[in-house]
Structure formats: structure tokens, C-alpha cells
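[audit] Reproducing an earlier prediction to check determinism. Same input, same settings, fresh worker. If the C-alpha cells differ from the archived copy the diff job will pick it up downstream; this log only records the rerun itself.
[audit] input (105 residues):
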Amino acid sequence: MSNKRYPDELRERAVRMVLDAREQDPNDRGAIGRIAKKLGVGDQSLRNWVERTEVDTGKKPGTTTADAQKIKELEKEVKELRRTNEILKAASAFFAQEADPHRRK
């Protein structure tokens, strides 16, 4: 979880409290609001943390945090490789032109 507005311990505790409340009463739709208010965190922040945890643990479909990080790293690598490839193409064209025996100097 990347948001550092709240400490990791608080986020983990809040998520645990919501999941416990849902386990006790699966029809309880107000758990997030009550727990968020009790702990002094935003409703939407807590909702996001719970959803992220559910995706990361396989309870909900979606891209896990680990997969999202790996995708981000691969996209960065692809960008760097494309840039390098363009530089190599330009250098190759330059040296091919320089090596052309029919080229006037």
C-alpha cells in the first residue's frame, strides 16, 4: 500500500476489523463507515484498503499489488529497450552511410 498518510499498522488493523465484521455478519453494509469513523480514517480510503487486500488474497478478481508492481517494472524496461533500440538503429544507419564506398566525401 503506497499511501503514507496513515501508518501501515493502522491500515492493517482497520482492514482486519472490517473483514472480521463481515465474517460475523456478511449482510452488514455499514461496517466500513463505522470502523472508518471509529479509527479516524476516510471511508473511501478504508474501502480501497479492504478491496486491495481482497484482491491480493484472491478473494476478489483483479490485479494484485505484486503483479501491478511487476507490470510497472516491465513497462519501464520496455520503454528503456525501445529507446536503446532507436539509438542503435540511428547509429547503424550512420555507420552504414559512412561505410558506403559509393558515398562522396
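[audit] rerun output stored. Observation attached for the diff report: The first helix runs from residue 8 to 24.
[audit] end
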